[in-house]
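User: Run a structure prediction on this.
Assistant: Running it now.
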Amino acid sequence: QVQLLDSGGGSVQAGGSLRLSCSASGSIGCMAWFRKVPGKERERVARIYSISGGTWYADSVKGRFTISQDNSKNTGSLQMNSLEPEDTAMYFCAASRLKGACTEGLVDYWGQGTQVTVSS
């Protein structure tokens, strides 16, 4: 069993930046970030493969967000630049044991969530 701890959320003005962090207590094959707004479906915004380093981004954040992992692969981050009010959401780190299982329906582990608020 792997525990995830996500952190780094806060309140920023539009155009600002924020860096979210995710620490895993054990080995994982992939890491992803999701966000949730009340009344809307949870959205995956980024994913990284722990072995190959391959990344994926939702169109809504492409070019503004960057996902990464440290050398141990147990700590990841989501660098968020050029933030917009529409980015306001609860952000959740997610991870899975297998490389191909960081889609919403297959995620093994979830962080507790960290709130990001972007004001205009």
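The mean pLDDT is 96.
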